[in-house]
Each structure stands twice: as structure tokens, then as C-alpha cells.
Amino acid sequence: MSADESLINGERISTSNQKQTGLQKYISRRLLMKSSATVLCATAASGFAPGAQAAVKKESTNAPVSDNEPSIVASDETAIVETVSGKVRGYIRDGIYTYKGIPYGATTEGPARFMPPQKAKPWTGVRSSMQYGRVSPQGARDGWDHDEEAWLFSWDDGIPGEDCLRVNLWTPGVNDHKKRPVMVWLHGGGYYAGSGQELRSYDGERLSRRGDVVVVSLNHRLGPLGYLNLANYGDRYASSSNVGMLDIVAALEWVRDNISNFGGDPGNVTIFGQSGGGGKVGTLMAMPDAKGLFHRAIIQSGSILRAGSMEKTEQLAASVLSELNLSASQVDELQKLPVQKLIDAGAAALKKMQPPGMFDWRKIADWLGWGPVVDGKVLPQHPFDPGAPKMSADVPLLVGTTLNEFFSAIGHPEAEAMTQADLKKGVGNLYGEKAASIIEIFTAAHPHEKPFDIFSRIMAAPIRQSAVTQAGLKAALGAAAAYLYWFAWKTPVLDGRPRAFHCSELSFCFDNTDRCENMTGGGAGPRALAANISDAWINFARKGDPNHPGIPHWAAFTAENCPTMIFDKQCEARNNPDTKERQAVTAA
User: Fold this and answer.
1) Is 295 an active-site residue?
2) Contact 19/58 with Cβ under 8 angstroms?
């Protein structure tokens, strides 16, 4: 669930054969769609060139760049770093070394399709690494058809291609023997869309500068390319249902083997991700192949507690073959098909298998369809069901959600006119006869909010509950701490209709609120909150504790108190801020 998943304000599901009003259509709209995914950031070893030296010196003191010097240093002689596959050259912008599109694995096309990733092929000379590489092939982004969404997100969809196993990297220094914390970003988009470049918020320059950290983002295989369960069709496909996750493991191995030359500490790696990216973080915590490759974990609006089942993913694979008119004996033809034909068949098969009715986070694995599978080997168990993975007991966890998640009025000003009758109908579509009591409990807790705000809180509550559950399971291991947050800041743009929507916290985590002014409105207010949030993320990456002087004391999670850091114009630490509301929807 990526950028656009948040806005999954696209397709609609009709809950009735009767003609619906615009508002009723909004309430029953399908909140997880496929808008490209619509459901859930030197020098050669021999020495520095003078320009690069100046840039490094300024950055080390956090001094501004002089008006007499260029903001960007891009030269054949600077920003050169040795990797295990060969030398790469990036560029320096205001003292931050930037590298894009570095291969961490070989191409995944042809015979390599559905196979575990292989090491990148070595190269000679110096590889220019200044521009993002290919993104995993995926369906067209339907979000472009929705003007407000497109304006808010300003997506960069990149260029698709199966040679997509690439990392991007931002660092304050290279070849300097420093051991900076490393923050590896996993993008959203469910498991079937998105990339490391799709949102402006993902740019790691400001976060790297602010925290003196190394920021890494990456692309990996998505949808049927990364998660098509072909295990029934031959031993060679035994891992096909999880190769997208194995790609991420390969990227983390690349970090382990190369990050020292980029000024990073391979012994202090934080993985963090949002929406589907958060789900990937949770999955890595339960993967034996990933153990030891990361040391902290942050899950943002992506507390997906269960992975897919073999049975349902086998059905999905059979449906894909049927869409392509291929028999079981012709399964190898899947490696020869034009990639877009495979992507289209995957989308058609998934559409037939998705659950009917309104989007329900409690059944998120079934809604996503594509995703990791409990296969007994690559992923031995569900990530956080029935408990937190013991193999990651020593890994601190920071987890949370946004207040309104998928349930905003982006593109739907009519939603602001929701009546009590509309509210009862909307909540009733998901909770049936228990809707009235649920509405009563939420309204009592928030008596001055209008019907649509109550509706949004109710519908987002299961997502918040999953994060609370995940924090509780982690804390129950009695080892590393868990910290819980709730992002409640509501954007002022579009008359405030987006609220604290899914993805709205991203620019704050990366300290990019001015870069993402369409989402935030820009200016001093968002910038101040971004300082508090990004500093919390940086501190957590540095030492496993998000506390810093800019926020109230943030207590580690306990089941009894459910301590929650609420990020808003004024940050507030509260115990049990919504227990009755969550209990109401959990019991329904």
C-alpha cells in the first residue's frame, strides 16, 4: 500500500443493486484498488578532488554552502566508491553524497524470472550511478485519473524493467572510516506496486544531513514477478512465492558487504517502511535469511500480522495460468511471456479472488493477494501471529499509524456533508447490527466531531488496533523494547479534507515537508513537527530509543498502559488514548 494505496479513492464496490447517491457510493467505494497499486525514503580511494573536499568539510560542520560555490559537485574525479561488484560514481549535493541505481542483484528477466536473486555481475571501470534505475514492472497507476490525489502525491512512476534490483543511497561522507547508523527504506504499494522513487518524500538527502546517517532505498520484484506461488509446478519454483522478499534480503546483504565504504556501520542497520513497506519490515523480522542483517525496525501503517496462505496463493497462481490459457505442463512459458502480459493476467486473476464488500483491514492478506507466503522455509511462520518472531527478539520496534488512514475525503467534498443516517449506513456495511453501539462509543469519546470524522475514526480503528497488537506481542517477548505512535496532524490543504491520511506522515519522517508542500502546505508549522518526528526516527536508528528533548518522554510499550506518542501540532504522550473505541471494533 503505497502512496496511492492511501487513496484508494478510486474504484467503488456496490453494496446494493439500487441506485446510490454520490455520498453512498463514496461510503461503499472499494478502498483498496490497483492504482499502480492502490490499497499501504567521494572520492577515489586515492584521494579527494578539491571541490569534493570543500563539500565534505562544510557538511561535517553543518555549515551552509557558500553562494560562490555550486550546490552540486558532479565530476569524473569525485564521489567514487569501491563496491564488491566494481567502482561507482555519484554526485555531491550540498555536502551529501548521492548514488542512485546501483545494482545489488542481477537481472530477473527470462530464465531468472521467479527464481531467487543472484549477485550483480561485476563491471570494470567506474559505473555512473547518478540516476534511479528501473522499477519493477507493475500495472498502470489509476491514481492519475483522480486529480486531487495526483496533485497531492505527485508520483514519479519511473521506467519499468525486470533488471530492477537497485539501491539508492545518501551519505554525509565516503571512504572516511566513519560508522554512521544506516536506515534502509522499504517503499509502500502493497506487494504489487511502488518503487524507491515514487514519492518526493522518499528522497534521503535531508534525513542523511539532519542525522549524520546513511539512508538507503531500493527496488525489488512486485506482484506476480515477486510473489506468484508456482511451488506446485516443479521444485525449481519452490521459492517463487517469496522471491520479492528474498530480493530485499539480497539488498540487505549488499548493505552489509558495502556500506562501510559509504561511511555506514553494517552493525547498526535500521529497516523502516510504510504501508506495504511496513508489512515487509514485519515479514523480514520472521525470515531466517534476514537474521543479523538489521538491528532496529520501524513499521508505519503496515502492521500486517499474517502472511498469505499456501492454499489461497496456489489458487491465485492457477487463476493466472487460466487467464493466460496455459496448462500446468506449460508453466515454463511464464518465463518467456512479455512481462506486461503477465502483469495484466495477474491483475485480472486477483480481481476475481478479492473479497466482496468494503475493504476490511482485518482481512488484509486476502485483500492484497500478492505478498509473502508461509512456505515453511523462506517464511516459516506468520510474522506476528500467534506471537512476535522470537528470532528478532533483540530487535527494538517502533510502530504506529495515522489517525484517518484510508478514510479521507480526498476527491470527495460531498463526504463532508455526511449525515447521521449516512454514518449508520456506512458503518453498518462493515459491522452490521453492531454499528449503532460502535457509533455511540466513538461519538461519546469525540462529541464535537461531525459524522464523517466519526466514520473515519471507526473505519481506521482496526488499522490502529493491529499496530497496538503488534507492539504488545513484541513487548511480550521481554527482550528489546517496542514504541507506539499515532500520527494525528491534519493537513490544511484542500480545506483540510485529506485529514491525517495514509502516507501523510512520510514527509515528516524524512524531514521533507517543504519538498512535499502539496501534501503539507509547507512552511514553519510542518517543518517544526518534521524536526520532532525525524529526530525521533534518527535517535531510534542510532540507539533503539526514539526519545529526544523536542518531545515529551516516550515510554516503551506495555499492555497495561498502551503508552502512545501522539504526533500533532503539539506532541503528546498519553496512556490508553482510545481503549474503549478499539475494544468496540475488535469485539464486533
Assistant:
1) no
2) no
Catalytic site includes residue 301: no
Exposure string of 108-133, with b = 16+ CB inside 10 Å and e = fewer, is: beeebbbbbbebbeeeeebbebeebb
Of these residues, 146, 187, 382, 502, which one is catalytic?
502
pLDDT tier, 6 (very low <50, low <70, confident <90, very high otherwise) = very low
Residue type, 41: C
Q: How far is CA 370 from the centre of its chain?
A: 15
pLDDT band at 67 (very low <50, low <70, confident <90, very high): low
Determine the Cα–Cα distance for residues 568 and 440; give it in Å rounded to an integer: 26
Q: Which of 36, 85, 217, 275 is catalytic?
A: 275
Are the CB atoms for 117 and 246 separated by under 8 Å? yes
Catalytic entry in 59, 149, 253, 405: 405
Taking each continuous run of H as one helix and of E as one strand, the counts in the chain are 17, 15
pLDDT at 354: 84
| Cα gap 205→266, rounded to integer Å | 20
Q: What are phi and psi of 563, to 5 degrees?
A: -65, 130
Is 275 among the catalytic positions?
Answer: yes
| DSSP states along 53-103 | HHHHHHHHTTPPPPTTS-SEE--TTSSEEEETTEEEE-EEETTEEEEEEEE
